[in-house]
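Supplementary Note 3. Input sequence used for the single-chain structure prediction.
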Amino acid sequence: MTAQPFHPLDIPIHGTNLIEASAGTGKTWGIAALFTRLIVLEKMPVEQILVVTFTKAATAELKTRLRARLDDALRELQGLNDGDSALADLQAAYLARADLRKKEPHLPEFEDFLFEILKLALAQEAPSRLRLRLQAAINQFDHAGIFTIHGFCQRVL
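The predicted structure, written as discrete structure tokens, is reproduced below.
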């Protein structure tokens, strides 16, 4: 098997994929990106996604990051109106944030991945519908299956 660069929008969702990475290479970021893809593009309910990791600390970190990723996506959709201009408005916000961050680096980043996934999502559905689904996912987040390996095994048993 040859190593391929990891891009969460290109990985097939169905079937089996192995993602190997050393410490500090962005595994948590990658998991959060895949989780966001499942919610935003694949339209999966939070309670149908399973995330398993090794330690309680890693589980806590994942929960924080996954929730924050959904919050970020919802924040970027605020103010977008339904209609043909939604995509252009998203692009304008992305470019404006990049320019503004040069002057005020404390502002939240509108990262490239989030822009790409929202752009794809807005090609599929209206901003109002996407906001509703994201808000529902955030409201149901406590039902997300995010466990340690031991916790998941105990739950299955």
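Strands lie at 50-53, 145-148. The mean pLDDT is 89.
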